[in-house]
Every structure is written in C-alpha cells, then in structure tokens.
Amino acid sequence: MSAALRSAIRDVVDFPKPGIIFKDITPVLADGKLFHEAISLLCDTTGGVRIDKVVGIDARGFIFAAAVADRLGAGFIPVRKKGKLPWKTHEASYSLEYGENVVELHQDAIRPGETILMVDDLLATGGTAAAAVELLETLGADLVGISVLIELGFLNGREKLARHTVNSIITY
C-alpha cells in the first residue's frame, strides 16, 4: 500500500455525531490512481482463488465491491438495508449503539457452494459484516474471505468474524 492511499483518507471529527472520528474515503474515490490502487489491493486479497460473486455491503461497500467484481470477472451481489431490495429476501438483524438494524439479501442471489468474497469500505464493530455473513451462510455460500479497505482495529470487529479470513488494507 502506498503512503498516498493512507494519507488520502481524511478524518472528519464529530461526524455523524459528537465523539466520532469518521474516516472519509471520498478523496480516494476522487483520485483515479488511488482508487485503482485500492481496488487492486482488495483484489489481491483473494490469493488467486477464483471468485464467483463479490458481495458488497450497503452503501459505500457497493463502490468497492462492484469494482472488485468487475476486475475479477465475477458477479456483484448487494446486501442492503431492509426494504431496499425488490425481490424475496432473507434478512438478518444486528445491534447498533442505540437499537437494531436489519440487512437483506435476495433469496436467489447465491447458489450453494459458490465462492464469495465479501467487500466493504470499513470494518468497525463488525455487526453489519456479521449479519451479512449470516445471510451468506443461509444460502450455502463458500465465503473465502472478507476484505475491507479500512479496519478500525480498536473496535474489535474482527472478533465477530473470527471463523472467517478478514483482510484489511489499512488498519487504524
């Protein structure tokens, strides 16, 4: 990873609420060379394993997952917040600091045994990723890895995904 990629991610203090330091990826997206590098690094996390489909988590994860899928010649599957997918879905809930959220996946998105790489922009507490993994397991996916551009290691999200290989490009 280049120092330029890491330094392009800007901290936004007190967003979306006081006490949070938001990792803003939009400078990476705006720079074609850095975006290309980020996608290449995420693709490299497959270790050469053939991927059938790349799953992206709503919403910034879609940006990276769709580009990775295209680069790998794989299909792209969105995991969305409840009520955003138009077909029959499976759903999984996860805890937030205050309350609960639900993500969904189309019931026919993945066939049992398909090799899946899950991609997101950021791994924080791991709740959303763990819910997405639950959905993939419901469909019999062969989840070969979870790859993220940024991991906030101090939030221990990796612990909720301990049964799976987690690859992060940048860790804070």
From TrEMBL:
EC number in record: 2.4.2.7
Keyword presence, Transferase: yes
Pfam families assigned to the protein according to its UniProt record, in alphabetical order: Pribosyltran
Pathway(s) the chain acts in: Purine metabolism; AMP biosynthesis via salvage pathway; AMP from adenine: step 1/1
Predominant location category: cytoplasm
Gene Ontology terms describing biological process: adenine salvage; AMP salvage; purine ribonucleoside salvage
Superkingdom, taxonomy of origin: Bacteria
Record field: catalytic activity: AMP + diphosphate = 5-phospho-alpha-D-ribose 1-diphosphate + adenine
Subcellular location: Cytoplasm
Sequence ranges assigned to domain Phosphoribosyltransferase in this UniProt record: 49-151
GO function term, MF aspect, one: AMP binding
Function, as annotated: Catalyzes a salvage reaction resulting in the formation of AMP, that is energically less costly than de novo synthesis.
Subunit structure as annotated in this protein's UniProt entry: Homodimer.
Family stated for the protein in its record: Belongs to the purine/pyrimidine phosphoribosyltransferase family.
Descriptive protein name: Adenine phosphoribosyltransferase
The organism of origin for this protein: Luteolibacter yonseiensis
Organism classification: Bacteria, Pseudomonadati, Verrucomicrobiota, Verrucomicrobiia, Verrucomicrobiales
